[in-house]
Design a protein that fits this description.
Elements (H helix, E strand, L loop, with lengths): L27 H10 L7 E5 L5 H6 L8 E6 L2 H13 L7 E6 L12 E7 L8 H10 L1 E12 L18 H20 L11 H7 L3 E7 L13 H16 L6 H10 L4 H23 L11 E7 L2
Parallel strand pairs: 1-2, 1-4, 2-3, 4-5
Antiparallel strand pairs: 5-7, 6-7
Helix pairs in contact: 5-8, 7-9
Bound molecules: S-adenosylmethionine.
S-adenosylmethionine binds next to helix 2.
Length: 310
């Protein structure tokens, strides 16, 4: 197996997560339902904060009012460039215009009360001060408009099972794994890099931000991998997992996990025994993925939380 790629500044934030597999994050019919719930057909100005390559801007655009304006902000110049390139390929029947620009979520380049809807997807899990970002999203949203966050609980999938044989687990091994994951989460937060399960506490943050009439929903998307991997969606997902394991990306990296674990109060010796078991698991997973034997229901926990500006 290849060694973990060193984190290079040449790679953008979360770059290993922004590939083709992300295009399959939402079920089309669920987006139809969401568009109805969010009344997107009456939305004329939408801002996508921490937009990355603009994925959600492009997914939501077809539901917006005729001639609506979509603004995407991200601090990574390379993603803004990728989003701008994609604009040339995207054609919406409702003549939506897109503007993507570099910027910081804490100081958005928009006037007060200028947006009908201000949203983010998996941004708040990465920021030091999500409350401050939500306050800034609220500032730029007009009275009556909506602030919307799509954020996960990324701890929950660690307590999900793939194969029936795994239901004969060792309680001690599961507890060891859970302890490491909790320490890594804690460490990541202590280092000011965000909290990966922030979705759970969005209602608390929205309430403190003074957002009213909150609604909380969950995505109905599962990301199963079932042999013989017949759909493109599954094959893309499998290819991504193989790449992550081989390159130590997508949360599989030794250095990143150790850094978080130590910051979360863990001891290096304990991490070594955990990582030995992770390495065996990764090897076995890799073999199964490559021989089309890996199977998973692909459960995930993704919240959609909305709050109204008054
Ligand atoms: C996991 S990616 C999500 C991208 C996009 N929302 C999507 O779902 O495809 C997180 C994004 O937040 C951006 N980001 C993180 N902190 C930011 C900040 N303070 N201001 C603006 N963008 C930020 C990163 O550059 C990255 O593109």
């Amino acid at each position: 197996m290849k060694k973990s790629k060193p984190k290079s500044p040449a790679r953008g934030h979360s770059e290993d997560h922004l590939g083709e597999a992300r295009e399959y994050w939402w079920n089309d019919d669920f987006l139809d339902l969401l568009a109805h719930r969010l009344d997107l057909s009456n939305c004329h100005q939408l801002a996508d904060i921490g937009c990355g390559k603009g994925l959600m801007s492009f997914r939501l655009a077809p539901f917006l009012a005729e001639g609506a304006e979509v603004y995407g902000i991200d601090r990574e110049a390379r993603y803004i460039k990728a989003a701008q390139q994609r604009v040339k390929r995207e054609k919406t029947d409702n003549k939506v215009s897109f503007q993507f620009a570099e910027g910081d979520a804490l100081t958005l380049p928009f006037e007060d009360d200028s947006m009908d809807l201000t949203m983010c997807q998996t941004l708040l899990i990465h920021v030091r001060d999500p409350q401050a970002v939500i306050a800034e999203m609220k500032r730029v949203t007009r009275p009556g408009g909506l602030v919307v966050a799509f954020e996960p609980n990324n701890l929950a999938p660690h307590l999900m099972f793939d194969r029936y044989i795994e239901t004969d687990y060792s309680v001690e091994e599961v507890l060891e794994m859970v302890e490491v994951r909790l320490r890594c989460e804690k460490g990541k937060k202590r280092l000011g890099e965000g909290f990966s399960s922030l979705g759970d506490v969005l209602p608390d943050l929205f309430l403190k931000a003074g957002l009213e009439d909150q609604q909380v929903w969950m995505s109905d998307k599962a990301m199963p991998i079932i042999p013989p991997y017949e759909t493109r969606e599954m094959r893309v997902r499998v290819a991504q997992l193989i790449e992550w394991i081989e390159n130590g990306e997508g949360g599989f990296g030794y250095e990143e996990n150790l850094r978080y674990y130590l910051a979360g109060g863990g001891r290096k010796d304990d991490f070594a025994s955990y990582w030995y078991r992770v390495s065996l698991y990764k090897l076995s997973m890799l073999q199964k993925l490559k021989s089309q034997q890996f199977i998973s229901a692909g459960g995930s926990v993704m919240y959609i939380v909305t709050g109204r500006v008054t």
